[in-house]
Design goal:
Elements (H helix, E strand, L loop, with lengths): L2 H6 L48 H4 L18 E8 L5 E9 L2 E2 L1 E5 L5 E8 L3 E14 L4 H12 L3 H5 L2 E4 L10 E4 L2 H4 L22 E6 L2 E6 L13 E5 L5 E3 L1
Length: about 250
């Protein structure tokens, strides 16, 4: 899939007016990157084949970029399993979600004027939601990821003065992905806030100590997670975008 064509078409609708340059084209898929699974390869007993990619669910975990995963604990009676969500231009998002008995966590993709969203449509705890809840805001990013994340957050602030002092840095928070990023003001500026209250900074895409809010960046995307205070239903460190190669196999973008 030519990434330039997508950004010139479908994803352009998501970032209209933002002045973004197209991300780099998709790199060629090497044999080492290709998932060795196909419709001709049977799934194990009691396993199932994912509907979009055709990968066996139990083996699809080998495709996930799990290096950053903090492996959040699953709830009692639940387990982590591989899920998938359709993205524009034929790409597929693979991720780990909770499965609690017959209920599974399901994300759905939704476009927007300036960004896309991944919404929680089905909860492993409560089933199908009447109103989907946005968990992740999706942006395209340039190669300088920390600068690109900071620029996105600054653009969303309503205070130009505060925006000028905002920078992106590794979060290093236990339980979050190892590559999680937060956008925050300087230590000197942060010291002015009340010490006994959760601190916020840098607008809606910046630091929020009252909830689990952070960025990840990779594969040409910036993912801003707004996870609230509840237990994770998805493993935020597992998100992996797949593209189908000319040989019909799926591999990480």
């Amino acid at each position: 899939m030519n990434r330039t064509l997508w950004l010139g078409g479908v994803i352009a609708l998501l970032i209209t007016g933002c002045g973004d340059k197209p991300a780099s084209p998709v790199a060629a898929l090497s044999s080492g990157q290709t998932q060795q699974d196909s419709a001709a390869s049977p799934c194990a007993k009691d396993d199932e084949r994912l509907a979009l990619t055709g990968l066996c669910r139990s083996r699809a975990v080998s495709v996930l970029k799990m290096k950053a995963s903090a492996s959040p604990p699953s709830e009692e009676g639940c387990e982590w399993t591989v899920m998938e969500t359709q993205l524009p231009a034929g790409e597929v998002l693979l991720y780990r979600g909770l499965q609690c008995g017959a209920r599974e966590t399901r994300l759905e993709f939704a476009g927007g004027a300036h960004r896309a969203e991944l919404q929680l449509a089905e909860s492993a705890f409560s089933g199908r939601l009447e109103e989907p809840v946005t968990l992740i805001y999706v942006y395209t990013l340039e190669d300088d990821l920390l600068k690109a994340v900071a620029d996105r957050a600054r653009a969303a602030t309503t205070s130009p003065r505060e925006a000028d002092g905002c920078t992106a840095r590794p979060a290093r928070i236990e339980g979050w992905p190892g590559d999680a990023i937060i956008v925050d003001v300087s230590k000197a500026e942060a010291a002015k806030a009340p010490a006994d209250e959760p601190r916020t900074a840098c607008g809606p895409l910046g630091l929020n100590q009252g909830e689990q809010a952070f960025w990840r960046a990779g594969q040409g995307y910036g993912w801003f997670f707004s996870m609230g205070q509840d237990a994770f239903e998805i493993d935020p460190g597992s998100l992996t975008v797949l593209v189908k190669g000319a040989d019909g196999r799926w591999a990480a973008l």
